[in-house]
Specification:
Chorismate Mutase Domain, subunit A
Length: about 100
């Protein structure tokens, strides 16, 4: 991660705005991969894989700790994101599969 040393409040806020935009772009990219994943699954149960969700949460919590960031913050963010993306994946699965 490259952080710029800011000299004013406006500079710092502009950098935060840039980071926020990148975060949204990365979430959108993740969501696009989620849509692709639906084509590899055949059931809603596969989509709601508790094992995979647990693995993701463990991995991102560890990364947060490595970066001196609150693992609870990251945990909560990812749980919310995963919950929404599971619904997206279920919708994609239902749109591509005939039950």
């Amino acid at each position: 991660m490259n952080m710029i040393d800011c000299n004013t409040l406006d500079e710092a806020r502009n950098q935060i705005d840039t980071v926020d935009e990148k975060i949204v772009e990365l979430v959108a990219l993740r969501n696009n991969y989620i849509k692709q994943i639906a084509q590899f699954k055949t059931t809603v149960e596969e989509v709601k894989s508790e094992e995979r969700i647990s693995d993701v949460i463990s991995r991102v919590r560890a990364k947060a700790i490595d970066l001196d960031l609150s693992p609870n913050l990251i945990n909560d963010m990812f749980i919310r994101m995963i919950d929404e993306m599971v619904e997206t994946e279920i919708a994609e699965l239902q749109n591509t599969k005939v039950f």
